Amino acid sequence: MDSIRIYRDLDPGEYSIEDVFVGLKGVEIIRKVFSSDGELEEVFFNTKLILDTTSHYMHVKNEDATIVVGLDHLRNSDTTTLYLDIIHELVHVRQQRLGLDLYDESYSYVDRPTEIEAYKVAVGEAKRLGLLYDQIMDYLRVEWISPEEHHRLASHVGLVP
User: Fold this and answer.
1) Is residue 2 scored above 80 in pLDDT?
2) How far is it, in rounded angstroms, from Cα 139 to Cα 161?
3) Cα 118 vs. chain centroid, distance in angstroms?
4) In DSSP terms, which residues pair with 13 in a beta bridge?
5) Is 20 helix (H, G, I), strand (E, B) or coil?
6) Coil, helix or strand for 147?
7) pLDDT digit string, tens, across residues 63-90
8) Residues 123, 142, 78, CA angle at the centre, nearest 5°?
């Protein structure tokens, strides 16, 4: 994570991934998310990243794999959270490119296979960085899920005390 620089003072608009997350393409976990160097290069060349004032966190558009990042999140969240979030979202980019429905409403958020996979990758990277159990549990806590769902998500990604 030391090799990543995050530009936080950008204006709303469209950017490349590396305009915002400089050095991300060379990170080992990102190289593992994609099946080849060619796919990685293509994703980083073609994936748009939009900074906007209406989004709260990050998400990937199901229709074209554009990554949307809320400016407030970019400017105010800690570096580790932003790093883990962009990894999570790049897993969604790969999933979307495979034709998966990122927002399959036949599942609840915490039981959705695409979310479980993306969180597993992010949690694995959090562990590699040395984050403690409580820190990772905090990372998994989002306001749109209940405490029971939070624990279910943690269980899905193999996070046990």
Assistant:
1) no
2) 15
3) 7
4) 51
5) helix
6) helix
7) 999 999 999 999 999 999 999 999 999 9
8) 65
φ/ψ of residue 82, rounded to 5: -60, -40
pLDDT of residue 157: 95
- Whether residue 24 has pLDDT greater than 80: yes
Tokens of 90: 């790049």
Spatial distance between the Cα atoms of 93 and 102, rounded to a whole number of angstroms:
9
Taking the domains of the chain in order of start, what are their residue ranges?
5-156
Q: If we measure between CA atoms, which residue out of 150, 138, 66 comes closest to residue 108?
A: 150
If DSSP codes are grouped into helix, strand and coil, which group holds residue 55?
coil
Mean pLDDT over 7-27 rounds to: 96
pLDDT, residue 37, reads 93
3-state secondary structure of 89: helix
Dist. CA 64–CA 14, nearest whole Å: 14
